[in-house]
Please model this.
Amino acid sequence: DQQVKQNSPSLSVQEGRISILNCDYTNSMFDYFLWYKKYPAEGPTFLISISSIKDKNEDGRFTVFLNKSAKHLSLHIVPSQPGDSAVYFCAASVLTGTYKYIFGTGTRLKVLA
Amino acid sequence: ETGVTQSPTHLIKTRGQQVTLRCSSQSGHNTVSWYQQALGQGPQFIFQYYREEENGRGNFPPRFSGLQFPNYSSELNVNALELDDSALYLCASSQRVGGGEKLFFGSGTQLSVL
Model:
């Protein structure tokens, strides 16, 4: 039972354009969401987070949108840069007790120069 | 640079053997989690330790066990290795941020079971 789904395994975007990565979840109890970026041979690196009391959070070129009714979140990267090429994971958690994060399967983003 | 270091980076074992993976967390982070990432998958939660006690466990059998020490280091032990245990094992220490918990990951240990 995949509670967090990233249905696009890969995405290619031209440099300077917007990259939109999507994530769907099934558990309505999730109340905190993270996006991570992973380069080969490195651990995942934190990008941005959002709690369920918000519907948008921005940090520089990165914006995360949360649609609770649709159980959907998205990560927007504007403008996309070649250094953004990596695998992106979304993760969700319930903020009580153990902070057990459920990760999606990832989307490989390739930004073309 | 997350301040979380894991050793070794790569390891090859044979089926039935036992393995110990090590992690050094960021100073001051009293929570450490271990995740397993199989090829083509996202990280899967194994367990979490808080102040040296297990604080939650994912769907992994008891042959996966751990320890957390007062000096912010921790271990993941796997007994009776199986071929399906081949994966990247990630350690993450935690810090509260913005009402949530932010994970700082190490680079992982790539375990191959032959």
Summary: Chain A touches chain B through 27 residues (CB under 8 Å). Residues 48 and 82 of chain A are 19 Å apart (CA to CA). The mean pLDDT of chain A is 93.
